[in-house]
């Protein structure tokens, strides 16, 4: 019961509050920028924590994520 309470409260209340404070401090543009990294963080953590071997699709997804962020952040002079 304690583990269930920790997971449900941590993920729903504490994490959401921390995200809200981060958005308030950094702004929505910065929050959206880091939101695009969520799949990348998940792939890295799945390699580090449970030991899942990275595959080719991880590298392709990383290239697509970084490429998309680079294109969206590029501003012509």
Q: pLDDT below 50 for ≥5 consecutive residues: which ranges?
A: none
Helix content: over 70%
Mind telling me the C-alpha Rg?
16 Å
Put simply, the count of helices is 4
User: H/E order of the elements?
Assistant: HHHH
Apparent shape: flat
Strand content: under 5%
Distance between the termini: 57 Å
Quote the average pLDDT. 84
Which structural class matches the secondary elements? mainly alpha
Largest sheet: none
- The number of distinct β-strands equals 0
Short overview:
This protein is mainly alpha-helical and 77 residues long. 81% of the residues lie in helices and 0% in strands.
Structure explained in plain terms:
With 77 residues, this protein is an all-alpha fold. Helices cover 81% and strands 0% of the residues. It contains four helices and no strands. It is flat.
């Amino acid at each position: 019961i304690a583990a269930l309470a920790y997971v449900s409260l941590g993920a729903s209340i504490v994490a959401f509050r921390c995200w809200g404070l981060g958005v308030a401090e950094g702004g929505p543009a910065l929050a959206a920028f880091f939101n695009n990294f969520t799949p990348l963080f998940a792939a890295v953590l799945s390699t580090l924590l449970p030991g899942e071997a990275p595959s080719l699709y991880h590298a392709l997804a990383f290239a697509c994520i970084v490429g998309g962020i680079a294109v969206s952040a590029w501003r012509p002079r």
